[in-house]
Automatic annotation (TrEMBL):
It holds the Pfam family Histone_HNS. The keyword Cytoplasm applies. This is Histone family protein nucleoid-structuring protein H-NS. It is found in: Cytoplasm, Nucleoid. Signal peptide: none annotated. Residues 83-92 have a biased composition (Basic residues).
């Protein structure tokens, strides 16, 4: 058997193992989905009660107080969660620190 034949055989085995892995993951996922559906039905839960919008996304996270403010425009604030706003990135690009943008509670 040549090296190329061995490589082809190994690649085929890898594809077969990957397919088996995916099948097992799918089976486990389906079992979990059935259990969850059963519990939802048993307790008559709604998507809203579970924090879902009905499109599969979590909605209605709690409001978080702003932690940072733009010194040039204090109306622009950021909680520190999620992506950095443009004004924060610009401030940091000029060598400013995130700590310097902290809102001081007095």
């Amino acid at each position: 058997m040549s090296s190329n034949d061995e490589i082809s055989l190994i690649e085929q085995q890898i594809r077969e193992l990957a397919a088996k892995k995916q099948a097992l993951l799918n089976k486990g996922r389906q079992e979990v989905i059935q259990k969850v559906k059963s519990m939802i039905a048993e307790y008559s839960l709604t998507a809203g009660e579970l924090g879902l919008s009905g499109r599969g996304k979590v909605v209605g996270g709690r409001k978080v107080a702003p932690k940072y403010a733009n010194p040039q425009n204090p109306a622009q604030t950021w909680s520190g969660r999620g992506p950095h706003p443009k004004w924060v990135k610009a401030h940091q690009a000029k060598g400013g620190s995130l700590e310097s943008l902290l809102i001081v509670k007095g």
